[in-house]
Write a structure and sequence with these properties.
This protein is of the alpha+beta class. It has a domain of about 70 residues. About 40% of the residues lie in helices and about 20% in strands. It has 3 helices and 4 strands; from the N terminus they run H-E-E-H-H-E-E. Strands 1-2 form a two-stranded antiparallel ribbon. A two-stranded antiparallel ribbon has the order 3-4. It starts with a helix and ends in a 16-residue tail after the last strand.
Length: about 120
């Protein structure tokens, strides 16, 4: 009986914490402040004070900047994909025999992302 009572009380607390609260409607004419992080790499933030009825006017103000940022991101991704395609073509006809950790040899034909990853740099020792 005590276990059921404790579980019932926990369930009530859980339900009370999960209730939906209606967001406050801002029809009083107060200024809204939006803080937008322009770039995830740089810690610079941009603040917009919107006094209009349209709370999304900051989208129009940053449209060109967001377009340029998306263009740079897409070009970088495109160049990375082209580089990987070039490595796949370069190693397409390569056949290698590699020893495993347990002493067995394994034949690898063509491109293997773990072995041919261009991000690894050669180190002279």
């Amino acid at each position: 009986m005590r276990v059921k009572l404790i579980l019932f009380v926990i369930a009530l607390f859980f339900l009370a914490s999960c209730t939906y609260e209606q967001p406050k409607n801002n029809d009083s004419g107060e200024a809204l402040i939006f803080i937008v992080n322009e770039n995830n790499v740089e810690p610079q933030t941009m603040t917009f004070v919107v006094e209009e009825k349209n709370p999304l006017s900051w989208i129009d103000e940053t449209k060109q900047q967001r377009y340029q940022q998306n263009l740079r991101r897409n070009l970088k991704e495109y160049h990375d994909n082209q580089e990987e395609i070039a490595f796949r073509q370069k190693f397409a006809n390569v056949r290698r025999i590699i020893d495993n950790d347990i002493g067995e040899s394994e034949l690898i034909i063509g491109y293997d992302k773990e072995l041919d990853n261009p991000n690894f740099k050669e180190v002279d020792y």
